[in-house]
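Researcher: Let's try something more involved. This one mixes different molecule types, so please make sure each is placed in the same coordinate frame as the others.
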Amino acid sequence: MSPDLSTRYLGFSLRSPLVASASPLTGDLEVLRRLEDLGVGAVVLPSLFEEQIEHEEAELLRLAEVGAHSYGEALDYFPKLQHYNSGPDAYLAKIAEARRALSIPVVASLNGASRGGWVHYARRMEEAGASALELNVYWVPVHPAESGAEVEQRYLDLVSAVRAAVRIPLAVKTACVFSSPAHMALRLEAAGADGLVLFNRLLRPDLDLEKLELVPRLELSESPESRLPLLWIGVLREHVRLTLAATSGVHSASDALKLLLVGADVVMATSSLLRHGPGHARTLLEGLSAWMREREYTSVAQLRGSMSRANCPDPTAYERANYMRTLVNYATPTP
Ligand SMILES: Cc1cc2nc3c(=O)[nH]c(=O)nc-3n(C[C@H](O)[C@H](O)[C@H](O)COP(=O)(O)O)c2cc1C
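Model: All components are placed in one shared frame. Result:
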């Protein structure tokens, strides 16, 4: 008998714990249909960015002002305006289209870092039919005058503002850059998050030695990166009621299983789907079922969290003791 892969995430009952995370892949309706056919439990659309929304609104304002003085001049802005509109408006249309085409939940993604007028787009996403919202708070605190407490408040203000704007479930995607990630998770939950997506991979720019300029680099992840969400999901599981999604480094069924065992409600994949194609979703799910059958697990619910910090035989494995063990046990390779 096939094991029961169903799970719960953001209040939805999903048929499998594999979610396609935000990327250009999930912006393509054909790919979304295919991912649904292959068994993914939900999809997250690529993000709409704060900058896109603010840009469009500034342009609208400019048009209104120009229009008040000169209708002819205002007409000149129309092609530009249409161009700017195609971002946010096309996004709303995509949500509606994806909802019509799919029966699994379609999560819209809003990406920003400051509380502002752009946040009202969350409501427009809800109105367009998004099943849930993923708020990606991506902030690089480069100014030393901004304290850690202020950075945290920035996150919390944003989450509260979006929470106040919508009724649909809200997931918060964040990086692991807090002094106390577990404490911050509790505060995000109190601010109204229904789920956490752990973690954002921070972009690390590279330096071009020829041109002496900083260049952005986006490299696809590798399996070992899944150990960061593994650590923190394992720690958080016993402390939060909200649902937990693991993102980063899910390339094989083993990566997915480990994350579920420490307590993830869902595992998300982007790099592995980009590298091997959407068909890799089936490979991941089949690998998951095969391992569960072999070990006589009948459901994901049965295994989920059984190796979290609270449940594993040696909780110190999550802590400093393991760090020391690792250093002491390191065998220097013979040259
Ligand atoms: C090409 C590309 C585009 C992405 N676009 C988005 C995005 O629009 N919004 C977002 O929240 N995350 C975005 N991500 C991050 C992924 O959703 C995911 O969280 C991250 O890649 C880690 O998962 P992975 O190891 O499975 O790739 C993007 C990642 C890649 C590689």
